[in-house]
């Protein structure tokens, strides 16, 4: 047996799995693909076999790449298997062993090393999309079906993107805001890369909710991508470097909270301590950082500084982000906030915990599988027949918007972020 491969694959953690099968009903890919190799216990057994030399890394590739990483299995596991660590180790080994063409290497290096970690590139993406939308190019493209020629079903996702702010509006944001003195709390806002590029207005609404709650809001200049997409693609070393950059950026001042509004980003941020060896300086710093990371819903409930004055006469259902629910363990706060909105009726789906199929870029690279999972989710949504689907993660939001379109329900249903619903209710400071 290859001892190095065993260490790389978190082999010792695979023995915690007793193959009981409790994870099977919780796993979206097992439900839609109906194959044991696409279940959590099947993947863990395959990792063990590869580590023992009984299967090849190539055998591992397809089942691991088709895993959503939703972590639903961890919520029902009776032996507390560290599935996330096993999954990431498998992705890292696959990435290390995979033979890639030079063009693919160049594209991956650009995307993971330059594009996602760069505020300038993220802003450029937002600027370009704004120009595309505001100049009339979008209408022309849709009229003649030009975007349908783009790869990876990009035309479907392009159609559900929100309206982008102008470059002037993006540049107008300061690095620090405070209205109430003394402030009730000092918070650092983790703006995210995709979140700030594509859902800039939602980020602005998040900041406004914090300000109206009495908080001082700071945008640390040197913050960067959380590293979730890197980790999900097996780029462990790059993910570690991004973690270090973020820890350093948020150490420049002392904060009561490090706030995020993206379930996937928040999940990665609280997992930073796992990236470093216990007893090291970086592990200590990562632990201190992670201890302050909170979802916006948790912070708003903690501060309890808002009253909602404008009725929102709508029936909605709440689609929890898998990483918010299963990793950050945030379940009650979003619902508590929605229940405070006057006029809003909240109806729960039969299986709100079932993944929507977004999972970072899963719905782009595994489109057909993601759509099968989305169809199951939308069947549950349609059973509630809401006016709106409320979620708490950018990927989930785009995926649910796409689900509404696929159901032909765009005239009666919309998908929105939690903070946008709260802002619609005209929140005002309690005092």
From TrEMBL:
<dbReference type="InterPro" id="IPR012257">
    <property type="entry name" value="Glc_ox_4Fe-4S"/>
</dbReference>
<dbReference type="Pfam" id="PF13183">
    <property type="entry name" value="Fer4_8"/>
</dbReference>
<dbReference type="InterPro" id="IPR017900">
    <property type="entry name" value="4Fe4S_Fe_S_CS"/>
</dbReference>
<keyword id="KW-0479">Metal-binding</keyword>
<protein>
    <recommendedName>
        <fullName>Glycolate oxidase iron-sulfur subunit</fullName>
        <ecNumber>1.1.99.14</ecNumber>
    </recommendedName>
</protein>
<keyword id="KW-0411">Iron-sulfur</keyword>
<dbReference type="InterPro" id="IPR017896">
    <property type="entry name" value="4Fe4S_Fe-S-bd"/>
</dbReference>
<dbReference type="InterPro" id="IPR004017">
    <property type="entry name" value="Cys_rich_dom"/>
</dbReference>
<keyword id="KW-0813">Transport</keyword>
<comment type="function">
    <text>Component of a complex that catalyzes the oxidation of glycolate to glyoxylate.</text>
</comment>
<keyword id="KW-0004">4Fe-4S</keyword>
<feature type="domain" description="4Fe-4S ferredoxin-type">
    <location>
        <begin position="57"/>
        <end position="81"/>
    </location>
</feature>
<keyword id="KW-0408">Iron</keyword>
<keyword id="KW-0677">Repeat</keyword>
<feature type="domain" description="4Fe-4S ferredoxin-type">
    <location>
        <begin position="7"/>
        <end position="38"/>
    </location>
</feature>
<keyword id="KW-0249">Electron transport</keyword>
<dbReference type="InterPro" id="IPR009051">
    <property type="entry name" value="Helical_ferredxn"/>
</dbReference>
<dbReference type="Pfam" id="PF02754">
    <property type="entry name" value="CCG"/>
</dbReference>
């Amino acid at each position: 047996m290859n001892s190095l491969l065993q260490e790389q694959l978190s082999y010792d953690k695979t023995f915690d799995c007793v193959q009981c099968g409790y994870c099977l009903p919780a796993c979206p890919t097992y439900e839609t693909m109906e194959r044991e190799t696409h279940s959590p216990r099947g993947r863990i057994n395959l990792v063990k076999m590869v580590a023992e030399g009984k299967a090849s890394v190539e055998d591992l590739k397809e089942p691991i790449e088709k895993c959503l990483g939703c972590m639903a299995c961890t919520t029902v596991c009776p032996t507390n298997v560290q599935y996330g660590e096993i999954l990431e180790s498998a992705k890292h080994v696959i990435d290390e062993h995979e033979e890639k063409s030079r063009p693919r290497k160049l594209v991956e290096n650009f995307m993971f090393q330059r594009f996602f970690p760069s505020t300038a590139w993220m802003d450029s993406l937002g600027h370009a999309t704004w120009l595309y939308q505001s100049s009339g190019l979008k209408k022309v493209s849709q009229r003649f079906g030009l975007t349908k020629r783009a790869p990876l079903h990009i035309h479907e996702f392009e159609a559900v993107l929100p309206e982008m702010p102008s470059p002037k509006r993006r540049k107008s944001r300061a690095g620090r805001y405070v209205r109430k003195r003394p402030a009730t709390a000092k918070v650092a806002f983790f703006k995210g890369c995709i979140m700030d590029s594509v859902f800039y207005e939602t980020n602005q609404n998040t900041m406004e909710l914090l300000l109206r709650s009495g908080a001082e809001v700071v945008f640390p200049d040197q913050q960067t991508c959380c590293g979730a997409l890197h980790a999900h693609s097996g780029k462990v070393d790059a993910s570690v470097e991004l973690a270090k950059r973020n820890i350093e950026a948020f150490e420049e001042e002392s904060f009561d909270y490090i706030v995020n509004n993206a379930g996937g980003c928040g999940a990665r941020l609280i997992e930073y301590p796992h990236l470093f060896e216990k007893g090291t300086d970086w592990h200590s710093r990562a632990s201190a950082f992670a201890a302050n990371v909170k979802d916006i819903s948790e912070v708003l409930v903690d501060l309890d500084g808002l009253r909602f004055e404008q009725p929102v006469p709508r029936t909605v259902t709440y689609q929890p982000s898998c990483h918010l629910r299963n990793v950050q363990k945030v379940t009650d706060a979003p619902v508590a906030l929605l229940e405070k909105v006057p006029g809003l009726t909240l109806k729960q789906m039969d299986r709100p915990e079932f993944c929507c199929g977004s999972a970072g870029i899963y719905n782009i690279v595994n489109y057909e599988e993601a759509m099968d999972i989305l169809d199951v989710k939308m069947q549950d949504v349609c059973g509630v027949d809401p006016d709106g689907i409320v979620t708490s993660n950018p990927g989930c939001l785009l995926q649910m918007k796409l689900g509404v379109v696929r159901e032909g329900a765009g005239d009666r249903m919309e998908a929105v972020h939690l903070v946008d619903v709260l802002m619609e209710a005209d929140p005002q400071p309690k005092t």
